[in-house]
Each structure stands twice: as C-alpha cells, then as structure tokens.
Amino acid sequence: MSASSSSSAASLRPVTHLIFDMDGLLLDTERLYSVVFEEICGNFGKSYTWDVKSLVMGKKGIEAAEIIRDVLDLPLTKEELLHESEIKQEKIFHTAELMPGVDKMIRHLHKHNIPMAVATSSSEVSFQMKTVRHKDFFGLFHHIVLGDDPEVKCGKPQPDAFLVCAKRFHPPAPPEKCLVFEDSPLGVKGALAGGMQVVMIPDEKLNPDLKREATLLLNSMEDFKPELFGLPAYD
C-alpha cells in the first residue's frame, strides 16, 4: 500500500458513505475498452496508447470518441467511431470480471450497513452489457448513477455525477462525508471538485504524474483498510 504524497493517515477524515466508479475500478472493463480501440485505431495505422487512453478514461462515450478522433486524426466522425466501438464492445463486454478484492470489500461493508452507490460514465445500455453476469453484486448498492442520467449535466472531471450520487442517498449524504473510489485522473479531479476524499486505484501503466492528486493511492482494492476512514475493519 502506498499513500500519495499529499496524505498521511492523520489527514484522512472519517466517512459515512461510499461512491464507486465502475470501469477499471469495480469491473475489469478498461482492458476491454483498450482491446476495442487498439483494433479500430490500428486499422488506420494509428496507436491507441496509454497517453491517449488517459485523456478519455471516465469520459462519456461520445466525448471520448471525439477526443480519440481528434488526437489521432482518424478519418471518421466521432459518431462513426462511437458506433464502430459499440459494435465491438457488444461482443466482449459480457465477459467483464470483477477486479481483485472488490467482491470481498463490498460484501463486508454491505454486511455492516455502510451506504454505497455507483457513479459511472457508462450509459444504461453499456451498463447492462457489462453487468449481465454480476446482477447480485450490483444489487448490493443503494443506487447507481449512469452517464446518461438527465441530472448529470457534465461528465467527469466535473463533479456532477458524484454530487447527484451523494444526493440520492436516504437521507442525502454531505459531500465531506463521502469517500470516492476511482481509477481515472478525470474521476479523481471530479471527486475532489465535489469536496470529497478520493482513493485512487490506477492501472500500473498510468503515467505517475497523473496519480498525484488523490487523497490515498493504492495498488489494488485488496490493499484498502476500511478503518483508515472510520469504517468497520475486516473481521
């Protein structure tokens, strides 16, 4: 476990509510996104690198497609790129597995009645494809806020998704009492902008410079110690 340079155990504040990103954090779907976009971009002689990927992680689909098209100068519209990616995603998203340590942690905290929710940039259709084999797991969350939710006006790095998510707990949760879990730099920025602490569990390939802002930096959910934030420790 490694804490980011901006935090020490003493600076971590107790929380009462947890909000989780989904792609690359709960589900191993970021790897599947890479497979899809590497193939599409490769067809045009372009490379979908981690430098490009880090620009779009956490973005809504059409926004991500526009960035990829512009950065790599692809000869198709953002709508065409999005459509082609969705066709390929439909074939593989159902294979998504839970990330290491995630099932144990969520079930532990659910057993202790800690309110938890998901704030994802995925659309309803995409969410259903990715979670088809994990309905029981996602049923443990109080609610799920999706990327095409009408109340989420702006995607990450704006805080909208997290603030809407906090508001939908019963009763609503104050932002300062929420702890967000993210794997993307844009998601970390959004959580911090919303006044929340954020645990970042990034892919090891992510540029280290993009890992500096998080309240706490971990290699895996298996390394998370709930008691650091005033939550029930593992039995």
What does this structure look like?
It is a single chain. The protein is globular. The protein has a 6-stranded parallel beta sheet with strand order 3-2-1-4-5-6, sandwiched between helices. The chain has helices at 30-43, 50-56, 61-72, 78-92, 102-111, 124-130, 135-138, 160-167, 185-193; strands spanning 17-20, 116-119, 143-145, 178-182, 197-200, 216-217. The two termini are 19 Å apart. 37% of the residues lie in helices and 9% in strands. Helix 9 (185-193) links the parallel strand 4 and strand 5 (197-200). It is an alpha/beta fold and 235 residues long. Helix 1 (30-43) crosses helix 4 (78-92), helix 2 packs antiparallel against helix 3 and helix 3 (61-72) packs across helix 4. It contains 9 helices and 6 strands; from the N terminus they run βαααααβααβαβαββ.
Largest sheet: 6 strands, parallel
Mean pLDDT: 94
Report the span from N to C terminus.
19 Å
Please provide the ordered H/E string of secondary-structure elements. EHHHHHEHHEHEHEE
Estimated helix fraction:
25-40%
What is the secondary structure topology, with strand pairs?
Elements: E1 17-20, H1 30-43, H2 50-56, H3 61-72, H4 78-92, H5 102-111, E2 116-119, H6 124-130, H7 135-138, E3 143-145, H8 160-167, E4 178-182, H9 185-193, E5 197-200, E6 216-217
Parallel strand pairs: 1-2, 1-4, 2-3, 4-5, 5-6
Helix pairs in contact: 1-4, 2-3, 3-4
